[in-house]
Amino acid sequence: MLATLIHAERDIRVETVPDPVLSTGPDAIVKVVAACVCGSDLWPYRGVTPTREPHRIGHEFVGVVEEIGPDVAHVAVGDFVIAPFYVCDNTCANCRNGVSTSCLGGGWWGGNDRQGAFADAGQGERVRVPLADGTLVVVPGPIPDELVPGLLTLSDVMGTGHHAAVSAGVAEGDTVAVVGDGAVGLCAIIAAKRLGASTIIAMSRHPERQALALAFGATHIVEERGDEGIARVRELTGGIGADQVLECVGTKESMDQAIRSTRPGGMVGYVGVPNGGPELPVRTLFDRNVGVNGGVAPVRGYIEELLPDVLSGAIEPGRVFDLELPLSEAAEAYAAMDERRAIKVLLRP
Amino acid sequence: MLATLIHAERDIRVETVPDPVLSTGPDAIVKVVAACVCGSDLWPYRGVTPTREPHRIGHEFVGVVEEIGPDVAHVAVGDFVIAPFYVCDNTCANCRNGVSTSCLGGGWWGGNDRQGAFADAGQGERVRVPLADGTLVVVPGPIPDELVPGLLTLSDVMGTGHHAAVSAGVAEGDTVAVVGDGAVGLCAIIAAKRLGASTIIAMSRHPERQALALAFGATHIVEERGDEGIARVRELTGGIGADQVLECVGTKESMDQAIRSTRPGGMVGYVGVPNGGPELPVRTLFDRNVGVNGGVAPVRGYIEELLPDVLSGAIEPGRVFDLELPLSEAAEAYAAMDERRAIKVLLRP
After folding, report:
1. Which of A294, A318, A334 is the last residue of a domain?
2. Same-domain check for residues B213 and B229
3. Which has the closest alpha carbon to A94: B267, B94, B265?
4. Would you place residue A118 in the very low, low, confident or very high pLDDT band (cuts 50, 70, 90)?
5. Residues A111 and A230 occupy one common structural domain
6. Does one domain contain both A135 and A253?
7. Which of A93, A273, A282 comes nearest B279 by C-beta?
8. Where are the beta strands (DSSP E) in A229-332?
9. What is the distance in angstroms between the CA of the first residue and the CA of the last residue of chain A?
10. Where is the domain boundary, A273, A294, A315?
11. Contact (Cβ atoms closer than 8 angstroms) between residue A75 and residue A130
């Protein structure tokens, strides 16, 4: 079968790899219907994180179950399933606490060890899914093709934007600013609106992304950054800052923007993967009682909550996909996202 | 009148200063019944923060109103009042948001400018209170003398411990660890119990403080620190860490202890004044979804909530005062706290 591998910085190849086989009782084999490229895939693509040896890549996919192991009870052959961007048992203490990304028996797609338990990855024709009962969520069919992009966002970006909003405690009537106009930032706007925010400030300089932000529920656009951006947010929030700021980038600059745009007593919800680990300025947080909450989003636990709104069309996160390519053109998908020619690229095997 | 001044590192003097006079319409003059020394007063005492010129010191006091300005409406001469450790109008946007420490018109006791609006301080015979209506909370009298220590804790340590617990989101049935066995840490135990925590782990090495922690509601004592302390907390919490950890010290080590003792998806509530600004390790927080919330505690807003429980004896935070001295011996009060011979010292003018 075909699958995407990263060999080195800016070296993405679609190659023939062995078909996956069931290796444990709780496994399932999923035939991928759609996969996509994540903003965090760009860190190894850009060489920001090193690639020591070629390995499978991709952690967002939806598909149809082709085979199940003898211990699988909640997923059947033929089911349409959403896979979160990680593997979890959905039963351990951390999963029960809503933090399935810290599952005691779970792991990540596409590890360096190609033979390892979690070595399969999403950007391929098939994926072996360990802990299928815990990891996969079945979508009742039939699934019209136009719903596929929206369902695919539940594997990562929509749940991640939602996590930013939930972590920040967004509630009815709140004033929210969103730092980052990538797919996650745009989904955070959907999430903030869905949770009742009455003012949503999107920080974006890109006309197409601004348009999508407004379509998703943003009430204001702020193009400025740094001190000017903070001043604009304060102007729009009675001089004090936003109740919550959703940080969806992961750089030192974006986190600083978020912290200083938050009102005293407010909260930063952050889901941008911290690139290089910008440390948080505790004195700035302390003096103004600004909290910071979030992290790697436990999207598995959000799928059931968000799925009905995707199926009904109440939210349309699938609109973040502005380019669709065949799997064979995965390298172009990475280049398009790297060069910001596309917000997010959907790949069809 | 007599008041306490800090002249330099380890140089505390009680000196004769001019009696305070009303200077603005919203002022009140309060005759101090009891004041105390705060752990944060030890930073300048120890020279960790520099004292550039002699100035009044002390920010926790209760007393009786002696005079009021023409604009004061909610406080009357003869009222027994609690002063929070800062001045606030209790009407601005930040006060309404529950963050009166960020009051747009407020300020801090004992600034370096002895003639400034907020230059008065608590460790003296009398204090001029700006914005008396917003700052002071009246306690219905008569006030039995044995209630004075408990009421005095509402000016800072009890409200601050409560803020740690509220910021961390402590709720019924939660498992809470408290880092710090000073007066604030001990009050945080009271607060956690009051909010319904079922397991409260006090991290303390001092037998007398351990005894008070247990009396206040701690269910377990952990004497170890660092990796060993974290391992002990995990042993007591099903291997994953505490739901919330209340950080009541403010050093790099204590914050590290707190963050790493929190379970995935849990929250650190922190109120220890960050001494030197230990930066927070964002990657550690991100990977485990551990949030950090808190800051300089807006205790003014908590006084009404906590006061009935102090008056009824349901909580006894006044027990943190294990030494009482006349105001004239303020220097010994500082020394006793610095050398950890006393948890907290009450001063009587």
Report:
1. A294
2. yes
3. B265
4. low
5. no
6. no
7. A282
8. 242-247, 262-270, 291-294, 321-326
9. 10
10. A294
11. no
For residue B86, the cross-strand partners are: B108
3-state secondary structure of A327: helix
Which pLDDT belongs to residue B270?
97
Split into its structural domains, chain A has a count of: 2
CA-nearest of B316, B311, B297, B341 to B155 is B297
Q: Do residue B93 and residue A238 have CB atoms under 8 angstroms apart?
A: yes
CATH number at residue A112: 3.90.180.10
Model pTM score: 0.95
> What is the tens place of the pLDDT at every residue in A73-100?
999 999 999 999 999 999 999 999 999 9
Nearest CA in chain B to A283: B277
| Mean pLDDT value across residues B186-195 | 98
Do B265 and A239 lie within an 8 Å CB cutoff? no
**CB within 8 Å: A282 and B286:** no
For an interface test with B, the pick among A282, A283, A284 (most B C-beta atoms closer than 10 Å) comes out as: A282
> Does residue A75 share a domain with residue A60?
yes
Question: For the domain that residue B274 is a member of, what is the CATH number?
Answer: 3.40.50.720
Q: Is there a single domain that holds both residue B86 and residue B211?
A: no
Instruction: Decide if B274 and A282 are in contact by the 8 Å CB cutoff.
Output: yes
Please state the φ and ψ torsions of residue B344, each to the nearest 5 degrees: -155, 140
Residue B264: closest CA among A245, A213, A167: A167
Nearest to A12 by CA among A49, A39, A48, A42: A42
Helix (H, G, I), strand (E, B) or coil at B15: strand
Q: Within 13 Å of residue A112, how many CA atoms lie on the same side as its CB?
A: 7
- C-alpha B263/C-alpha A19 separation (Å) is 38
Q: Count interface pairs A-B at CB distance under 8 A.
A: 125
- Domain of residue B194 covers 161-294
- Inter-CA distances, B283 with A36, A45, A48, B246, B287, Å: 25, 20, 16, 20, 6
| Cβ–Cβ below 8 Å for B282 and A280 | yes
Residues of chain A whose C-beta is under 8 A from some C-beta in B?
Answer: 93-94, 97-99, 101-102, 167, 238-240, 255, 263-265, 267, 270, 273-274, 277-283, 285-296, 298
- Residues A30-79 have pLDDT tens digits of 999 999 999 889 989 999 889 988 889 999 999 999 999 999 999 999 99
Question: In this structure, are B272 and B216 located in the same domain?
Answer: yes
CA–CA distance, B182 with B320 (Å, rounded to integer): 8
From chain B, the residues in CB contact with A251 under 8 A are none
One domain, residues B213 and B340: no
Rounded-to-10 torsion of CA A86, A196, A289, A241: 120
Residue B291 is nearest to which of A94, A278, A292, comparing CB atoms? A292
Residue B118 carries which DSSP code?
A: T
Are B251 and B182 within one domain?
yes
Q: Give me the DSSP letters along A149-205.
A: HHHHHTTTHHHHHHHHHHHHT--TT-EEEEE--SHHHHHHHHHHHHTT-SEEEEE--
Query: CB-CB: which of B240, B292, B296 is closest to A93?
Result: B240
Q: Which of A292, A295, A298 sits opposite B287 (nearest CB)?
A: A295
Say yes or no for a CB contact (<8 Å) between B265 and A298. Answer: yes
pLDDT band at B49 (very low <50, low <70, confident <90, very high): confident
Q: Nearest-CA distance from A106 to chain B in Å? A: 13
Least Cα separation, residue B71 to chain A (angstroms): 27
B113 pLDDT higher than 60:
no
